[in-house]
Automatic annotation (TrEMBL):
Gene3D superfamilies per record: 3.30.70.330, Ribonuclease H-like superfamily/Ribonuclease H
Entry protein name: Epithelial splicing regulatory protein 2-like isoform X1
Chief location category: nucleus
Keyword Ligase applies: no
CDD domains named among the record's database cross-references: RRM3_ESRP1_ESRP2
Job description of the protein: mRNA splicing factor that regulates the formation of epithelial cell-specific isoforms. Specifically regulates the expression of FGFR2-IIIb, an epithelial cell-specific isoform of fgfr2. Acts by directly binding specific sequences in mRNAs. Binds the GU-rich sequence motifs in the ISE/ISS-3, a cis-element regulatory region present in the mRNA of fgfr2.
Top-level taxon of origin: Eukaryota
PANTHER family for the chain: HETEROGENEOUS NUCLEAR RIBONUCLEOPROTEIN-RELATED
Location within or outside the cell: Nucleus
The entry's keywords: mRNA processing, mRNA splicing, Nucleus, Repeat, RNA-binding
Position of the signal peptide: none
Gene name linked to the record: LOC120024786
Highest classification ranks of the organism: Eukaryota, Metazoa, Chordata, Craniata, Vertebrata
């Protein structure tokens, strides 16, 4: 607009629900618009215009019916909002032309009709509002400039202002909602334009067209009165979706920080920073408004919380985010060997990256190892949309996930990976104080010979896990099952299991992932001993990624998941009672002709080595079970105090019973399989080796697609090595297949 001083358009609206000071707080649609032009130079007014608006939902609250005097029948005959806005533009343009004016500014009684009603409704209905609705003046603030002694702006009302300047009330015949408010605002505007005030309207408020991206430094001061926390967001929502939810309110530059959980995924929460407290307070009025079909909770938050998520100190990140007006895309699942050129080739010519490789930021651990994540900059929305079309396409042998991202998410991901290991450890200020030394089986190492079970039922016991593992229980290391408790000493739904080898762990993760336990599916991930040890020695594993408050309860290994009693109520026997499971096998001489494994049960023992306590924080209960890899397929607990001996009773002929040991066989890994190859194809490939269909395990990636690999269990190591020697690099459906013997 050329000038804001030519003309005012005094504007008023009402909704089908709450009006007045609560306008827009209940998401009800606009049903009435009223306006009138005021020529600021000639002090003239135009024709008073009133339009009814037909809402999508023809329902009026009793309060709205009473205040507006409108009925559903009247609204049914009205035009929808987009048509009424067109009529508004045509009417105002015609009057401006008649007056010889070229520009105008909306004048409203408080910002609610613009910020809380019109912009949110237009956003939900995908309407493009005219430019005039992005700038306005508030008659209350303009009056406060003229008469600062009249009271605080937030305390002023139109009747109190008119009374202060001695403008008489309108006659009852003219007190129709909308008409009354517009006439009063026109009278007030003309009054302060005249002597002795000679006021000039200058407090122009703007509505931002779009969210501005930007970086935030940890040293930047953030006013706690400008920050809110939004909860319940769809996991795929972006910063633009959040800005659209708060349409009409001005979010600070880089002011949307999506929160991540401990696994680096969005947890449905975001911290949003507004330009001032007024906008923050209006945002709080949108508590339980809807984003699609979901309602969003809105609460107050602090500047410290915002900086913890969005603030950063890395020069590399600051340089990466220094390019303004860029669209950021996050890539997840990249091969660890992927180079910048590989990523650029994957994205293709239709989605060029800003400044080529300089527009890529690979996320790495503190030791320089890649995490598989990267952020990419695009100069426009079109290029970003082209890149998003490649979501879950293959790069190397892995499918790649692509999501919209934000500057705050870049900071958050980099902060997390650069400052903590994969599973975060205790803060340095919280040093664990174990009563006894670390259990001997908690070795550290980077070999990925462990699996993590996530999503266990809270009532799950060791026996349930062994049943869940099925045939793979024979591959569990001695003392290899570790249940993780939360800070209240209750099951967290997580467990770690140490396997005999990385290949066994890999096979368990492939075969048991998302398998059902009771009424829940359990996720199974391969991990390293080092990662497991971080948790078992007191590291945090909460899903928000934040350190919990110190735990005052000693986390013990209860024999069952009953309600966890307070320490004062625990008997001495309960403190030290181990689970009733099999004890270690009696070691056999290496050349014993008749190995006879012993299966024994033992009663509760008072052994202090069963108790581990962290005086500051402890998320872990050490389960000394199973204390050895199960030696038979029957692996059950015995009643307390009972003892059972097996496989030591001689037969009638005087011979010792042969052990009932399952045949472990030998694993062969097949690589380079066609993606459409099935079990029958593999059986045909190994024709003559007496394989059964259940000896073949096709491997899948986490998107449910075949990975091109399979694990084959041969009856013996000899037959496995013979198959590898004879069939390696032979073609299957035209592709050479690689074969490898998996060593324990």
């Amino acid at each position: 607009m050329a000038s804001h001083s030519d003309t005012l358009v005094v504007f008023f609206g009402a909704t089908a629900g709450a009006n007045g000071g609560k306008l827009g707080s209940d998401e009800r649609e606009i049903i009435l618009l009223v306006w009138q032009i005021v020529d600021l130079h000639e002090k003239k007014v135009g024709k008073l215009q009133r339009r009814l608006v037909k809402p999508d939902s023809l329902e009026l609250t009793d309060q709205s019916k009473e205040e507006t005097g409108l009925s559903v029948d009247e609204l049914y005959k009205a035009e929808p909002l987009d048509k009424v806005l067109q009529q508004f533009q045509q009417s105002v343009s015609a009057e401006l032309k008649a007056l010889g004016r070229s520009s105008y500014t909306l004048c409203v009684d408080g910002p609610l009709i613009i910020r809380q009603a019109l912009h949110p409704e237009a956003s939900k209905k995908n309407l493009v509002l005219p430019e005039c609705f992005y700038s306005f003046v508030d008659v209350r603030k303009e009056f406060h400039k003229c008469c600062p002694n009249a009271g605080q702006v937030q305390d002023l009302t139109l009747p109190s202002i008119l009374e202060y300047v001695c403008i008489p009330e309108l006659p009852l015949s003219e007190q129709v909602m909308g008409l009354k408010e517009v006439r009063c605002m026109v009278q007030l505007s003309l009054h302060i334009l005249a002597e002795p005030y000679n006021h000039k309207f200058s407090c122009f408020e703007a509505v931002k067209y779009k969210l501005e991206s930007g970086a935030c430094s940890k040293t930047e001061p953030v006013d706690s009165e400008t920050v809110i926390r939004a909860r319940g967001l769809p996991w795929q929502s972006s910063d633009q979706d959040i800005a659209r939810f708060f349409k009409g309110l001005n979010i600070a530059k880089g002011g949307v920080a999506l929160c991540l959980n401990a696994q680096g995924r969005r947890n449905g929460e975001a911290l949003v920073r507004f330009i001032n407290q007024e906008h923050r307070d209006l945002a709080l009025e949108r508590h339980k408004h809807h984003m699609g079909s979901r309602y969003i909770e809105v609460y107050k938050a602090t500047g410290e919380e915002f900086l913890k998520i969005a603030g950063g100190t890395s020069n590399e990140v600051a340089q990466f985010l220094s390019k303004e007006n860029q669209v950021i895309i996050r890539m997840r699942g990249l091969p660890f060997t992927a180079s910048p050129q590989d990523v650029l080739t994957f994205l293709g010519a239709d989605s060029p990256v800003t400044d080529a490789s300089d527009g890529l930021l690979f996320v790495k651990y503190p030791d320089g190892r890649p995490t598989g994540d990267a952020f990419v900059l695009f100069s426009c929305e079109e290029y970003a949309l082209n890149a998003l079309k490649k979501h879950k396409q293959i790069l190397g042998k892995r499918y790649i996930e692509l999501f919209r991202s934000t500057a705050a998410e870049v900071q958050q991901v980099l902060n997390r990976y650069m400052s903590t290991p994969l599973i975060s450890t205790l803060p340095s200020s919280m040093v664990p104080m174990p009563v006894l030394a670390t259990p001997p089986y908690l070795a550290t190492g980077s070999t990925r010979d462990c699996v993590r079970l996530r999503g266990l039922p809270y009532t799950a016991a060791i026996e349930d896990i062994l049943e869940f593992m099925g045939e793979h229980t024979i591959d569990i290391k001695p003392h290899g099952v570790h249940m993780v408790l939360n800070q209240q000493g209750r099951p967290s739904g997580d467990a770690f299991i140490q396997m005999r080898s990385a290949d066994r762990a890999f096979m368990v993760a492939q075969k048991c992932h998302k398998k059902m336990m009771k009424d829940r599916y359990v996720e199974v991930f391969q991990c390293s001993t080092e990662e497991m040890s971080f948790v078992l020695m007191g590291g945090t594993l909460n899903r928000s990624g934040l350190s919990p408050p110190p735990c005052k309860l000693p986390c013990l290994a209860p024999p069952a998941y009953a309600a966890f009693p307070s320490p004062a109520m625990l008997s001495e026997a309960a403190l030290y009672q181990p689970p009733l499971l099999a004890t270690p096998r009696t070691p056999q001489p290496p050349h014993s002709p008749h190995p006879t494994p012993t299966l024994a049960y033992y009663p509760p023992q008072h052994h202090p080595a069963q108790l581990y306590m962290n005086m500051n924080m402890n998320y872990t209960a050490y389960y000394p079970s199973p204390p050895v890899s199960p030696s038979t397929m029957s692996y059950f607990a015995s009643p307390p105090g009972s003892v059972a001996l097996a496989a030591q009773q001689p037969h009638a002929q005087g011979h010792v019973a042969s052990p009932m040991m399952p045949q472990h066989g030998a694993l062969v890994r097949m690589q380079g399989l066609p993606y459409n190859a099935g079990v029958k194809d593999i059986l045909s490939f190994f024709q003559g080796y007496q394989l059964q269909p259940d000896a073949i395990l096709l491997l899948y990636n986490f998107s449910g697609q075949r990975s091109g690999e399979a694990l084959i269990t041969f009856p013996s190591e000899e037959s496995a090595r013979r198959a590898v020697a004879e069939r390696a690099n032979h073609p299957l459906s035209g592709l050479p297949v690689r074969l490898l013997v998996c060593c324990d």
